[in-house]
Amino acid sequence: MQLLSTLISGLLFGAGLAVSGMVNPAKVVNFFDVAGSWDASLLFVMAGALAVTLLGYRLVLRRQSPLYTSSFSLPTTKDINARLIGGAALFGLGWGLAGLCPGPAVASLTTLSIEPVIFIAAMALGMVLVRRFVFRPA
C-alpha cells in the first residue's frame, strides 16, 4: 500500500507540474526575467503550492504517526551555514539558467525531448561529484 500511495502521489505531483506549466523551461525563465518578458503566472502556482503545503502539514502532523510507517521523519537541523546558502544559490542559478529543477525535469521526460535528459544527466553527474569531492570520508 505504501508503494501505491507513493506512486499516486508522484503521478499527482507530476501532473500538477505539467498543468501549471513548470515543465516548460521557457515559462520558468520568463518568470525569472523580471526586467524583460516577465511572466508572473508561476507566482500564483508557487503561492498555491505554499498554501497547500502549510495546510497539509498542519493536518498531517496532528496524527500520531504517518499511515504507512511508524513515525514521522522531519528535519531537525536548523543551522544556516555556508553549505546551505551555497547549495540554495547553486540550485537557484541552475533553475534560472536551465528553466528546470529536479521535479519538473523528471516530469518533462514524458515529452520525449532531449533537454530534460541532458539536464538530468548533468544533475546526476553533479551529485556524483559532490559525493566524491565534498562528502569525502575522513
How would you explain this protein's 3D organization?
The protein is mainly α. It has one domain. The chain has six helices and no strands. The protein has helices at 2-20, 25-32, 41-60, 82-98, 102-108, 114-133. α1 (2-20) crosses α5 (102-108). The protein is globular. The termini are far apart.
* Count of spatially separate domains: 1
Strand tally: 0
Helix content bin: 55-70%
Radius of gyration: 18 Å
* Helix-and-strand structural type: mainly alpha
Low-confidence stretches: none
Q: What share of the residues does DSSP label as strand, in percent?
A: under 5%
Q: Tally the helices: what do you get?
A: 6
Taking the sheet with the most strands, its summary is: none
Could you give the order of the helices and strands?
Answer: HHHHHH
Categorize the overall geometry. globular
Kindly report the average pLDDT value: 87
Q: How far apart are the first and last residues' alpha carbons, in Å?
A: 40 Å
Describe the secondary structure blueprint for this structure.
Layout: H1 2-20, H2 25-32, H3 41-60, H4 82-98, H5 102-108, H6 114-133
Write a short abstract of this structure.
66% of the residues lie in helices and 0% in strands. The protein has 6 helices and no strands.
Task: Kindly list the characteristics that best describe this protein.
single chain, 138 residues, mainly alpha
